[in-house]
Write the C-alpha cells for this entry.
Amino acid sequence: NKFGYERIAMECSASFARIVGFLPDRIDDLKTAVSEACLNAMEHGNKSHPDTRVVVNMQYRDNVFSITVKDHGDGIQKLPDYIENPDINKKIENLQTPRGLGLFLIKQLVDQVEFNKMTDEGHMVRMVLKLTG
Amino acid sequence: NKFGYERIAMECSASFARIVGFLPDRIDDLKTAVSEACLNAMEHGNKSHPDTRVVVNMQYRDNVFSITVKDHGDGIQKLPDYIENPDINKKIENLQTPRGLGLFLIKQLVDQVEFNKMTDEGHMVRMVLKLTG
Amino acid sequence: MSQKTEISLEKQGDIMVFDIQKDVTALSDAIFSKAYQDADNQGTKKILLKFYEDAYINSGGIAILIQLLAKTRKNNQSICIVGLSEHFKKIFNMVGITKFAKIYTTMDDAMDDLAG
Amino acid sequence: MSQKTEISLEKQGDIMVFDIQKDVTALSDAIFSKAYQDADNQGTKKILLKFYEDAYINSGGIAILIQLLAKTRKNNQSICIVGLSEHFKKIFNMVGITKFAKIYTTMDDAMDDLAG
Ligand SMILES: Nc1ncnc2c1ncn2[C@@H]1O[C@H](COP(=O)(O)OP(=O)(O)O)[C@@H](O)[C@H]1O
Ligand SMILES: Nc1ncnc2c1ncn2[C@@H]1O[C@H](COP(=O)(O)OP(=O)(O)O)[C@@H](O)[C@H]1O
C-alpha cells in the first residue's frame, strides 16, 4: 500500500490493454478506473489496515477485457444521493462534499461495472472494457 | 496466449518492480525470468491448450519481490543433464539440443527460485528478487 | 511510488501561475491550501493552474481542486486551467469543473482569457 | 502482441550485415534460415548480426541464434554481434554465445574486427 498499489495496478492494466490492442484514450480510461477502484478497495474495503491485501485480476477474451479488484470488506453500502448524482454546483457551494467522485468516474469510464460482488475472500468490483473496431 | 501472455506478465512485473524501486538492470533480469517462466507454463505446463490459464501473482514485502507463475500441469519431471548443465560447445556441435535454456536463465537471473510447488490448481514456480542497497 | 505534488508560484503580470508538478491526489491538500494562501495574500485576482501532460490526478485530487475553485469563487478571483492531457480534459468536463474554470490548450490562450 | 522478426541483409564491402528488428523468439526460425541461406548463396564469409537496444530475445530465440552460429562455424564464416543492450550482452555471455561470436558495442569496432 505504501508504494501506491493503485499505481502498480494501473500500470499493469495499461500494459495488458496496450498489448491486446486498446487505443491510448481507452487505456487512459482504464487507468483512471483501475486506480479509483484500488483506492476504494484500500481505503473503504480494507480500511487502510496494513496487513490486508487487494487482489487484482485481469482477463482478456473475445475482445472483452475484464478486471476485478477484490478487498476484504463488506461491500458498498447504500449510497447517499451525492454519490449517485454528484453535483458540481453543490460541491462548489459547499452543500455537498467535494469527495465521492470515484464511483462516478468508474461508471463513466468503463463499458460495464458491477459492484458488490461478494466472494469467499470479500468484496469484488468487476469492470469491463470492450475492444471495438 | 495468442497475444503473448508472457509479454503482459513481463510488462506488469516490470511496472511493479519499477514502482517499488528496483534498478533497470534488475528489472531486465526479472523480465527475462518472468517471460521464460510464462512460456514454460504455457508450452510445457498447459501444453498450449487454448482454454487453460496461466496465473501470475506478484507480491512485495520487506524488500522482497516475489512472483509466482501457475499452470495446470504436473510439474517439471526429472530433467536430463543438458538442461541442468547446458553446454554451448555441445549445442554448437549439435550434440545437444539448442533449446533448454529457459530454466538455466531463470536460475541465473533471480535471487531464488522454487520449481515444482504443487497447489490445488496445478504446478507453480516461485521466483524471488531482493531489493538491495 | 506516490510522488508528492510540487507547486511553484510564478507571477506573470497580474496573473499568478500555479505550476503544478507530480501527482494531484488527496495528499495534495496542504500544498494547495498553502499555495492559494500565498497567492491570495499577494492580492491575486487572476489564477492560472498549469498542469503537465503526464500528470496523475485522481478523484481525491479533483476534490482538492474543487475546494480551490470554491475559494476563488468566494473571493471573486478568475481562474483558468492549461496543460491537461486530453484524458484529464475529458474527466474535468465529466465532473463539471469546466463550469467554473475554462480549460485551454496553450498558455497564450489561457493568458489572453485572463487578461481580457 | 508478438512482433515478427524482420531481417534485412545489407552488404557492406565483403561483410553481410543482418539487420534484425523486432522480436527474436522460437518463431524466428524460418526467417533466420532464409536470411542465412541468402547470405550463404552469395558466398558471404563475414557476417555481422546487428540488433537493437529494445530487442526482445527469449530462450527460444537464443536457440535459433545458436543454430545459426553452428552453421557459420561449419562453413568457416566469421561472425560478430553488435547493438545488444547490456542485459542481452550479459545473457549471451551466460549462455556462452560469446565463445563463438564476439560482441561489440559500436558498428565500427565490429566491422574492424571482421575486416582485420
Ligand atoms: N470497495 C469498497 N468497499 C466499501 N465501500 C466502498 C468501496 N468503494 C466505495 N465505497 C463507498 O462508496 C463511497 C463513494 O466512493 P467514491 O465515489 O470512490 O468516493 P470517495 O472514495 O471519495 O468517498 C465511499 O465513500 C464508500 O462509502
Ligand atoms: N511449467 C512446466 N511444466 C512442466 N514442465 C516444464 C515446465 N517448465 C519447464 N519444464 C520442463 O523443463 C524443460 C526445460 O525447460 P527450459 O529450460 O525452459 O527449456 P525449453 O522450454 O526450451 O525446453 C522443458 O523442456 C520441460 O520438459
